[in-house]
């Protein structure tokens, strides 16, 4: 090289470690194309080949210059984002979730990213039905024409397009054809985010001039209907005085709603006087905050609010224990305002979608368009819009269910976990089997945020942490305003059956109370924590009971479908007209669910307007909202439902609550059964008498003298929790130990037993200071044709030991799956089972 020549440095070869959405415990290294060296960074999404045929979306975990040692790195196909969609704080959280809950980063990614942010090779390409190759103004390359001619026959997968064009990088070509409106990526619409668009209309720019506009009106003087359209447009959009407003124009639907002539409008568009175009609009119609009266806290609420602020400053976490109807939500709103005014983001967690309906209605009046809502009933596109809204800074407050913990916050100041006791915060299937309340605590550490956990019936663990001084305990012992806690009475099932005063599943006491409430134009809520018509049916002559062919459970009868359904795998059979074993026609239903109660109510109260709220009636996106709005407006007299009706709902006219099957809730074989029963009964009781008039609760039970009911009647939450703590300390259950549940699944029962015994024996041999319960068959020992074996591991609260035991478990499971006959087994870990 001579002194006059310039030296150009060869760009270095970069590699990226990616999280791939597969349950494999490792990162995958890919080569970065040199054209992307300056653009690529952690937290972006990329498209990469995976395996022989698949193409998946990966997230860049790190970028470096070290090639993998044991395989040749494939190249990244395409970079999807200009900037990161996941921040370093989320990576820390994802890693913690994977480590703590014994799963992989890939499984965390699957749970974390909305489907709309993931693209797979299953996407299909088809010709656009509106594409006419003989009448197009676009130019096409040779490869584009090859693909378009082939698509005239049938649609193709991405892999088939790659083979047809003999090119690995087809994404630029596909994007070009989409832009030319020649093809549709029709599964991409389902899986990848598409902004919602709205058709707008505006004056063609050449008419936004004084002389041109005068000439236009002169030309339209003989066409009064067209002239009227232009005048109405200019009333809404002052295009002449503010030409920039004409750029956005107005919604076509708004203009057409002004009773103009559609034919006149169409003529103006055809004459190129008006032009139509599309703009992206938000899917959430929250406008600016309404001018609502300032939030006025009562004296007791102000005291509690100040104690919460003091506790947050001192300990970072506060347990707000307020009786039902004490006004915890008003305190939350006050604290949210303070956090937002300080420039922080806020996450408000709720356990159920049903609960978000009422609270969102209240919050949107106050916080307007700065609030996003995030839950599973939303479409993929709606969830992506919330995700992007947080990234852009549009949403400062998010109200959502447990999956909201994965959202990309970067300036989180406050997390509120409302109804923190609720088991819906625990994810059961699939992995990661996390508990959102516990993850929220880790989020707070990562973001240096504050946490409020609130409930009328705190979990035993949270109350214990408050007693131990880890959380600040703040209590609200009185209902807001003049409201009083309801009276609780018991309907003795044993006595009523002896006296033969039962009406179906209803005691005479409950029937009479319902009659009186309806006569006073009050509303009633009835709680039965079992959906369907009847949990099982039986032949009265031979005792035949229909069972699921895939699971070791009886089929539940659903009358509205006239079918028997398995609630575990979905298997369905028609209700037989006669017994398949003995041909008897005497087939009866045993037990009852919400559907049967609804039917009986219609018999006993034919004039009452009755609604049912359970999984079957709320499957649609607006199912919850429709039922709750109807009840709130007084269009429903009696609402019968599962535990959805117990959670934080606030209705003015409810003065009677009936509780069915309390005994079954208490005697379920689970160490938390008393706690869950107490919480459910107390919570549903709290729906009654939330205004001036005192409410009433009727609990149907065969054992009114049961000690648990004493705590319920006296609203003695702390006394109940203290008794539970004493029992759990004696039997070494949380919070005095940590639990890890292990479930082994296999289609061969002997293999499942063998794996369970080997795993248990090896763990007991390696770890001496733990207690292992099992292995044994769980109560339901077969689901979806797989046999189950369970192990429960009890560990002291030594964090170091917990990490070591988890590693042992993971290693033992991986080694067992290396054995040929065990390869198809599933070994599932559930840390802190709820």
Q: Explain this structure to me?
A:
- With 834 residues, the chain is an alpha/beta fold.
- Helices cover 35% and strands 21% of the residues.
- The protein contains 27 helices and 34 strands.
- It has a seven-stranded parallel sheet with strand order 14-15-13-16-17-12-18, sandwiched between helices. Strands 19-29-28-20-27-26 form a six-stranded parallel sheet, sandwiched between helices. Strands 2-1-4-3-5 form a five-stranded antiparallel sheet.
- β23 (563-565) and β24 (572-574) form a beta hairpin.
- The radius of gyration is 31 Å and the shape is globular.
- The N and C termini lie far apart (71 Å).
- Residues 187-191 have low confidence and may be disordered.
